[in-house]
């Protein structure tokens, strides 16, 4: 095996095989017309023999040439919710003739910055991002010099096109449903204030209590959940209280899954219902009292991508746009209770 075939062939390898300059090879492979037919055939034959493929990334970073790349940074690809968001993004960006460069931040601010530096180095034309937390001020378009579309988690102090979900209204509706049914000790299982979606969902949780005239049980508010495993541990702790919750609110679908790992095996005659913000796989088959608040995740991805493309294509040059998608109760299996004013249990 020769050195040329043992590694990825270069433009210089093609030029040497064809007996021409690298400039001639570049002109032929880029569709230039000012090349004699005989030379063109020699270059094409050499490229085919070496199985040469153009380095699109190298082409994309030539001064003045657009890369055709859109960067997308999300927090967790293992969450089906973000897979649905990505499907919406991909459909819109793909139809524009551009390609997607995806990075996963795992809600790690330092990793998010590293991914961003790498994408900027690859000359992305624009960025769609689910911020890792409220400290992601480096995502501001004026800092990056490219259009930015913020998805799902708006950033305080950062002006950019933003697509968010009605987290407050969704939590208000879901928690309000169990409070209206007579439940009074409702636990909150979510992330801290640094995650804007969780902060807004906690706001809705509080507002539901206020409207129902019910005091929030501070000892049942846990805002240190980060994933399914931590939510599972928190619910175990809550169940072990002398007076455990009579209902639960999980701020994300992954936290719902962790909560159900504890609640389903422990379910007695009157299990405490669970309000889940975001749908999850097989929710409709779950033999447990649920209230599921959901929204159209692919629509969020599509809206984020459409807003970015309007900036890239010059169709939108005005002030930054903020869009809020509705969150509604998709399904409920909350038991019907006697309206005698007593707390179920």
Share of β-strand residues: 15-25%
**For this entry, what is the oligomeric state of its chains?**
single chain
Percent helix, as a range, is 40-55%
CATH topology of the largest domain, which one? Rossmann fold
Shape designation: elongated
Question: Uncertain segments of ≥5 residues (pLDDT<50)?
Answer: 1-6, 337-345
Structural class by helix and strand composition: alpha/beta
Order of helices and strands: HHHHHEHEHEHEEHEHEHEHEEHEE
CATH architecture of the largest domain: 3-Layer(aba) Sandwich
Strands, count: 12
What would you say this structure looks like, in words?
Helix 2 packs across helix 3 and helix 2 crosses helix 4. This protein is of the alpha/beta class and 345 residues long. The chain is built from 13 helices and twelve strands. The strands form two sheets. It has a six-stranded parallel beta sheet, sandwiched between helices. It has a six-stranded mixed beta sheet with strand order 7-6-8-9-10-12, sandwiched between helices. It has three domains: 52 residues, Orthogonal Bundle (434 Repressor (Amino-terminal Domain)), CATH 1.10.260.40; 114 residues, Rossmann fold (3-Layer(aba) Sandwich); 128 residues, Response regulator (Rossmann fold), CATH 3.40.50. The N terminus and C terminus are likely disordered.
